[in-house]
Amino acid sequence: MPKYMLDYIRLCRECSLDLRTIGNMLNIVIPTLQREAAKLRNAVTELAGAFPELERDVELLEAAIRAGIQRCTPRPHQQELFAA
Predict the structure, then answer these.
(1) What residues have CB less than 8 Å from 65, skipping those under 6 apart?
(2) How does residue 54 score in pLDDT terms, banded at 50, 70 and 90?
(3) I want to staple 40 with a disulfide (CB 3.0 to 4.6 A). Which of 5, 47, 58, 61 is the partner?
(4) What is the pLDDT of residue 83?
């Protein structure tokens, strides 16, 4: 897996929930990674098990994207805190 994808996973896990960071993640980083994951998923599907390590990478990236979206989605109590 490319270093920038691993960096995303690490940064997402260590997120400070800063509004600028969340905005960048939702508007730039996550959509880019979703496109990359879709390309990788297509390659894995076409190669049908020829590269199991690539399939694991795709699964890890897809799980990280889902987790990132969940972390970056404001919850009602968070919105109240940001409004204060």
Answers:
(1) 30, 33, 34, 37
(2) confident
(3) 58
(4) 57
The mean pLDDT of 7-14, rounded to a whole number, is: 79
Residue whose C-alpha is closest to residue 29's, from 15, 58, 48, 8: 8
Q: How far apart are alpha carbons 43 and 77 in whole angstroms?
A: 41
Mean pLDDT, rounded, for 66-83: 72
CA distances 53 to 9, 15, 60, Å, are 17, 27, 10
- Would you put residue 34 in left (φ > 0), alpha (ψ -120 to 50) or beta? alpha
24-58 as b/e, with b when 16 or more CB fall inside 10 Å? Answer: ebeeebbeebeebbeebbeebeeeeeeeeebbebb
Give residue 38's pLDDT: 94
Q: Any alpha helices (H) in 1-84, and if so which ranges? A: 3-13, 19-24, 30-47, 52-72, 76-83
